Structure formats: structure tokens, C-alpha cells
Amino acid sequence: GAGVSQSPSNKVTEKGKDVELRCDPISGHTALYWYRQSLGQGLEFLIYFQGNSAPDKSGLPSDRFSAERTGGSVSTLTIQRTQQEDSAVYLCASSLALGQGMQETQYFGPGTRLLVL
Amino acid sequence: AQSVAQPEDQVNVAEGNPLTVKCTYSVSGNPYLFWYVQYPNRGLQFLLKYITGDNLVKGSYGFEAEFNKSQTSFHLKKPSALVSDSALYFCAVSDFFSGGYNKLIFGAGTRLAVHP
């Protein structure tokens, strides 16, 4: 079946502009995660969605970052007033909802490579 | 807090030889451990996971990993390396106990280079 898809695959923007990154999870996966991969910080967690709610936003680096999820499916990560340090690969992952004591595997999309000039 | 260490930035191995990519972890409670692989310009691909049960976990593409509780390690292994195994490998631990969901804490990654 189809995996996690992300768009755009690459985005080049100017400092100060807003960008939107999209994630389409695997059908039926209620849990959705955003991570960021950068040279300096490695792979870091940004935000977690269960359904449409985000119980953990602790990884968002600043209030310029926000995310939403609608219909329990597609998620959008928005970065306002982009800065050069926002340049990174933004990865989305989805998984089945966790059963008690179970650890569902996260499946990752190909990522969006963001370059802020 | 949970953490993962991958002590080697790069591992070089000749094709056909066995390979090992090292991972050690620090967790409170029972560890939930994962290995992912990343090929150039691609996302992360799941290889295997340890939740409970047998210490030797078998995964995709002939990879396996051995969970060692006393040494707090979860090294990735393959008996015979292929050139196509060359990629970036990430070990991760689940920060399940901080929130009841599967937030992954990743190691810094190890680049595996398999030479013909």
C-alpha cells in the first residue's frame, strides 16, 4: 500500500517568508509525528498528533512553528518568518494508535528539504 | 531522560564480511529500541525493533540486532555485508514513559560504507 507522502520534496525560500509543509500519513494511522533532521542537531522530535489533537508540542523550536491536522489525516507544519537556522529536512512519520504496552512502528515519509536563503 | 549513543561516526567494512553498528542506550524502565536506515535523499526506513522477548531480533534485508540488558546495548549486525547496505543508520529509543506515546529519541547516526 501507499506509504507516508510529503510535499514539497524541496523548498527554497527567502528569509522572512512563511512556508507550509504537508504530510499525508498511511491510511488508518491515527498517530502522526513531525521530526527535523539538521546537521547540527541530528534528528529531533517536533510534535505529536493523536487524531486531530496535539498532546505534545514540546519539540517545536519557537512560536514561529505551528502544526495542525485535519480529519485525522493530513497534517501541515507551518513555519512563519523563516530564518536560516530553520534550514533542515522535515520528516513526518505515522503509526497505528498505541495499544496498552505496545509500541507501534513509525513509518517515515521521504521528507521535505527546506533551504532558507 | 532517555538517550541513545552511537559511538562510531562511520564504519567501514569489506563486502562479504560481517558488520556491526553499535548502539548503547539509557532509559528509565524497560527499553523499546529501534533501528532505521536512511539512504541518500530518502526518509528513514524501519529495519527492526526490540520490545520484549528474544534478545536476538531479526529484521529487514538480513539485518539483526542483539539486545543486551547488562551492557545496555542494541548493536545492529549482518553476517555478510553488501555494497548496497552503504547508508546512514540510526538507533532510537522510545520515550514512551514520558507521555504514553512513541516519541523517538535518536542517536547521531552511523555511516556505513561497504567496499567492494
Structural account:
The complex is a heterodimer of chains A (117) and B (116). Chain A contains no helices and 11 strands. The mean pLDDT of chain A is 91. Chain A has strands at residues 5-7, 10-13, 19-24, 31-38, 42-50, 53-56, 65-69, 75-79, 88-95, 107-108, 112-116. Chain A is mainly β and 117 residues long. Chain A is globular. By secondary structure, chain B is mainly beta. Chain B is 0% helix and 50% strand. Chain B has strands at 3-5, 10-14, 19-21, 24-26, 33-38, 44-50, 56-58, 64-68, 73-78, 87-94, 104-106, 110-115. In chain B, the strands form 3 sheets. In chain B, strands 2, 5, 6, 10, 11 and 12 form a 6-stranded mixed sheet that branches. In chain B, strands 3-9-8-7 form a 4-stranded antiparallel sheet, with no helix packed on it. The radius of gyration of chain B is 14 Å and the shape is globular. The termini of chain B are far apart. The mean pLDDT of chain B is 92. The interface between A and B is medium-sized, with 28 and 26 residues.
The major sheet of chain A is characterized as:
7 strands, mixed
Q: Count of helical segments of chain A?
A: 0
Radius of gyration of chain B: 14 Å
What is the first-to-last residue Cα distance of chain B? 41 Å
Largest sheet of chain B: 6 strands, mixed
What order do the helices and strands of chain B follow? EEEEEEEEEEEE
List low-pLDDT spans of chain B: none
Short description:
The complex is a heterodimer of chains A (117) and B (116). By secondary structure, chain A is an all-beta fold.
Keywords summarizing the entry:
heterodimer; A: 117 residues; mainly beta; 7-stranded mixed sheet; 4-stranded antiparallel sheet; 50% strand; B: 116 residues; 6-stranded mixed sheet; 0% helix
